[in-house]
Task: structure prediction
Amino acid sequence: MTSHHTNAALLALRRGMGRIRAFETVALAAHRAKEFAGYLHVSIGQEAVPTGICAHLGPEDRLTSTHRGHGHALAKGADAYGMMAELYGRADGACGGKGGSMHIADFSVGMLGANGIVAGGIPIACGAAQGLRLLGSPAIVACFFGDGAINRGPFMEGLNWAALYRLPILFVCEANTFAAFTKADDTTAGPGALARAESCGIPGVAVDGSDVEAVDAAAGDLVRAIRAGSGPRLLLASTYRWEGHTSTDLAAYRSASEVEAGRGRDPLARLDATLAARGVPADALRRMDEEDLAEMTDARDRSREAEPPPLRSAFSDVQDAGAPEVPSWA
Amino acid sequence: MTSHHTNAALLALRRGMGRIRAFETVALAAHRAKEFAGYLHVSIGQEAVPTGICAHLGPEDRLTSTHRGHGHALAKGADAYGMMAELYGRADGACGGKGGSMHIADFSVGMLGANGIVAGGIPIACGAAQGLRLLGSPAIVACFFGDGAINRGPFMEGLNWAALYRLPILFVCEANTFAAFTKADDTTAGPGALARAESCGIPGVAVDGSDVEAVDAAAGDLVRAIRAGSGPRLLLASTYRWEGHTSTDLAAYRSASEVEAGRGRDPLARLDATLAARGVPADALRRMDEEDLAEMTDARDRSREAEPPPLRSAFSDVQDAGAPEVPSWA
Amino acid sequence: MGVAVAETTFAGVVRDALADEMRRDPTVWVLGEDVRYGGIFGQYRGLAAEFGPDRVVDTPISEATIMGAGLGAALVGTRPVIEMRIADFAMPAMDELVNQIAKVRYMFGGQARARLVVRMPHGLLASSAAQHSQIVESWMANLPGVVVAVPATAADAAGLLRSAIRSDDPVLLFEPKAFFGRPAAPASDEPIPFGRARRAREGRDVTVVTWAQALDPALAGAELASAEGTQAEILDLRTLWPWDEEAVAASVARTGRLVVVEEGVTVAGFGAEIVARMAERSGPALRSVARLGAPRIPVPFAPELEAAVRVSPERVAAAIRAAAAR
Amino acid sequence: MGVAVAETTFAGVVRDALADEMRRDPTVWVLGEDVRYGGIFGQYRGLAAEFGPDRVVDTPISEATIMGAGLGAALVGTRPVIEMRIADFAMPAMDELVNQIAKVRYMFGGQARARLVVRMPHGLLASSAAQHSQIVESWMANLPGVVVAVPATAADAAGLLRSAIRSDDPVLLFEPKAFFGRPAAPASDEPIPFGRARRAREGRDVTVVTWAQALDPALAGAELASAEGTQAEILDLRTLWPWDEEAVAASVARTGRLVVVEEGVTVAGFGAEIVARMAERSGPALRSVARLGAPRIPVPFAPELEAAVRVSPERVAAAIRAAAAR
Ligand SMILES: Cc1ncc(C[n+]2csc(CCOP(=O)(O)OP(=O)(O)O)c2C)c(N)n1
Ligand SMILES: Cc1ncc(C[n+]2csc(CCOP(=O)(O)OP(=O)(O)O)c2C)c(N)n1
Ligand SMILES: [Mg+2]
Ligand SMILES: [Mg+2]
Result:
């Protein structure tokens, strides 16, 4: 495909993807080094999807995410250190250490939260769009979910709901081939997400999710339509999950050749080739990557040293009426 | 449409519909006369659907139903007196008075129960089909639900599930125009049940649900295919709910002309016309109807006089381990 | 008042309170099945006409999404009133309630607030049978992050609804199904605070703690006992979380005798929490405790069997008498 | 044994018991996500190889249908083992569990039986955070129609799983998440009956009642208290419904002192039922009662905060000491 992007636009996309890659590479190493607890789901290999989509969203627009949400959060503008510190469960963390990787959120940039429940963000996205309309806001909502999530009831409920009220929602199916330890296709009947959306009256587009230019172009069209009042749209982005389901999953259930083919679809390398052909020096990209890696490594170092939250904070943010007493031992 | 049915076959269908009509006409009058408690949802006007479908099911086949399930139960062969006595909450009732209209079941004829939860029968149907296969049974499952139910998540989950495992299930959407006090179409986006089924890989057929010959013919084809191993199929039958949502709903939210048009699609009258054209004397039909009415009136009379269940029975059928003690006051 | 009901009933009183709150705050809206029709208890009657289809939103039969969309709408700054029809139908929406609504504020470190109300009428109602009679209030009391309101009277339902709508917490409002049709006087405009019991009857011999539809047999039972000379004080809790532990403790300190009357299943019902708390606090000063509620059986259909689930005034009276005798 | 695990762990022991039951009865089968992979705790490892894809069925991420299909399969005469991964993920399936499974036998007047097991590993596990740590055992104890099993040891989990599979009741098996990886000795072939507590420690001063993962701090706390001369008897309930009220009552009759240690939220947790029941039965013979459990907060992520939810051995020891002093 011939690119309609300027070099500057492509570099911005490259940067966005590079930061996600750097963040998750560092986080994965840190988690494997047992520097922090909990579950860690990385989206390495899938960076083009949030990057290409969030290029078309402003801070007023909202986003709902999944358990694999670092890329969504970064692309939407969340602070990398706040996120890293959250992985470490620190007081500095985006959620004060109460959430961890699976519940990263940054409401200040419209990132309404990762979600530990598959498809959990879909009804929330529907209501967010409805609420925004009631408030007279022109903002739209991007709703991310995986190819495994399309088999949960709320997916169809949400499609019907969004279409019924013509809500300004971009549904984004990140088809990374897997649903945990099983191939998503092995538990999915029929032609898939696009057909299901269409059956509820929602047109959609399929795109190679490792081609950020394609994602960006498709998202641009869809977001423009949605802002113009088209009602909801769905983008199906096919990608490949490079790593295991969680950081501790060695993913022995897949063949070396499959993994090799999947990793061959590296969205960063692909864009690098385009940029090289356009005469962008490889050096510039390497420098960018080094900067990003330095930023994320710094975030890791600071997070490692940061203060854990005070025990008392476990008892705040529960509820106003009937708030828990702080026990004497806390 | 030219009928391929013998007169005898048509008369059997007519009889099946007539018995449902008679049962529900009597039950509705009795409930309005406050002869028994609870909710009553009648399917008057929709008799052709269960009748045409169950003509192709044997006693080994299973059926899951809805809150509007009298027709399904009768068509599947449930005993009319047992059902009527259940409406009255009598010891003689199909469920010993513990269920009432909303929970009528007759496992002896494969009727796995009405259901007070919209779409509640769909996952059950999936598992029943799966279980039958594991047991090596050739039986199939008919799964009834309404046009309002297709907006519940379990509908899509069930479609995907049934298609995935190629289960022998006939999904039957009874599109009676309403979902309680709202038009089903007013809360449904997109082209509807057939398209949703197809999006999960399940072919379907739409049929005029007030034309019992058409229902019977379509169901015959689908059931044959299912028995031959085609995997699941969906039948969309459009009908009209003559009465209110429940017996106490006067349905003032619809216009007289709409109701008139809906009642004009009387499946019994329609078949009567066909039979008349074939030379079946109106008398024969009238006699049939009189017999049915007499049977149901007798069931009503006997139910009215029947014994309520003993208070002790409230404490049985709960569970074996940790069964409730019968309290001293019971 | 924009719209008046023919006669004032419990449903009309709460309807009026809701209408009033919707007038006060344009971010308050309603979503659920058949709400434009007026709701199955008439508790939304006339609201669609006054507030239009964008604030009184008829939804598909999609409970999970009704609940979850309510949360999403709250997260962007509106105050939805989520209509669940009856508590049983909230079961398909438990993920959205338990895993999302109750936890967003906490797990996001205070960034989010689920300012919303979930209306889930509950309790026994004339042979509604097993799938339309479930009481889950004690489950919700056990669920951190939510307020649990269980009014018995129209005035309390209206006042608690007002508090719920204005609250920054997610509030689960379990209204008494069987009482919606009762005649009721217009209620005050004042919100009723969470966590304050109402003394429904004075008495110094035995403390009876109750709430929701169980108030009926509690009051009737106390009258029976009174005829024999035993005076029960009845506390109607009105909310289960927070609950008015101090009011109960104060009364128990006077009477030394506690009888809980609840409509739900006694085993692991909220009455267990009340008795356990008082046992922990009062020690031997607590001369007798008893719980009356439903046996651990699903709710049967036949009226004669449904009676087995109901707490009768006679059983209440007997429990009051037995307590006083100890 | 068809398939062996490298070393025997809790997961291996329950896996072996399941395999054995599947060999005994060809109508027993498993359905859930990633069961062919072996389950997220390895508790199904090797079963797919032995029993094939028709009896070890990988499902879509459709919890509602996993649960409901399990019921349907039971209604036609098979005995499904329904895998829910963790208890939190059963929330989307609550309608199928609460409104259908728990009620079919009753509402159909005994025509139907839900002969099935629902496996829902629960409890705190290393910073799993709010949406992966919910404990709902007390809700299920309040739900008529189901058996609630909460084993703490591999032997009990295996024996209760055997009973659950052979039982004609629907059995909810809450296995202790954090214990799956523990080394364990092979278990006996005998099913363990529901409703019988296991004496996990002898002692005559204080009765400690516990179950599931709370057994750990209960045992450790009792050792601490023992070092100071107070001997606690520990009863591991193993099942919450039915629960071994007589064993607890007998112990309390000896000690006069009751401490409940549970992992879930104390408010309206099952400990409340135990204390309430003992208060009702024992009256003034009960010299002291206390409940230890989680505060009413969602489970936080940071290990330092998660500690606030955990009952520590020190708190148990302090409660035992305080009880003994009264
Ligand atoms: C309701 C629910 N069921 C199961 C899980 C466990 N689980 C976590 S991620 C996952 C796979 C999700 O697959 P997909 O939606 O494709 O997202 P991906 O992990 O591939 O990004 C599963 C089954 C869960 N979190 N929530
Ligand atoms: C999960 C759930 N939500 C809501 C209800 C209340 N309800 C009972 S019947 C009904 C309408 C169902 O419409 P449809 O599926 O078309 O069936 P019909 O009544 O038309 O036969 C509703 C909303 C319910 N029983 N279950
Ligand atoms: Mg995936
Ligand atoms: Mg309908």
